[in-house]
Amino acid sequence: MYCSNCGKGLYEDDKFCVSCGAPVKPRELERESDGLAPFLNSAASHPHPEQARRNTAEPTEEDYSLFIGKRAEEYLLLWKEDRHWNWPAFLFGGYWLLYRGMYLYFLLYLICLSLLVNVIRYLTFPAYYLSNGVVWTVIAAHFVLQVVFAAFANQIYFHHAQRKIRSLNVRFDRYPDLRKEKIESAGETSLYIPIALAVLPILIGIVSFLLYTAHIYKEINQEIRMMEQGTSLRKSLETTGGAIRPA
Description:
Number of helices: 11
Strand content: under 5%
């Protein structure tokens, strides 16, 4: 029994072809088409060049251009010449990863940053306290991570694009137009998430400052009330004491 779409051999209980994913015809219809199996096998062994290329699932330059978008020529040149340094990655760090849609790499970036900063701080300042030395150590650790990250950013982006495109080539192999649309959509960039995460710490700082100010204002008011109560009590005692003494 053979697949009526690609000619691949099938088992009797198969519902879908394991090669092309086409549904298996009912057995009575399959019998009628069994005579075409040799021709189908021949066609499958000599596929169209475009189909043969797609069966490899390897991305082409056109695929990478669709995925990258506006700066495709720049990144393709960087990859071809095996350049490592990436200025946007150095200047913006994790925000560049978010802009390019590499959310898993962003999570790994945060983990590495946290581990590096804490390990270096612990080795240089075992007793935790806030000082100029601690601040400069954290800044230096962050700078080192930025340099290392920028040196590998192009390769990280290449492997990210390659992995995404391969997956889409396999899933939408038989639908070239939809495949191109999915590749273009998968590589879309977005400023919304980086901007939101950049503004979020500012908002948190503003809210924290307002809460701290409200807390301090409340404590000051309590101190003023306690001082007023103490003054009133002292005057009351003085008045009472002054009335008793003459007696």
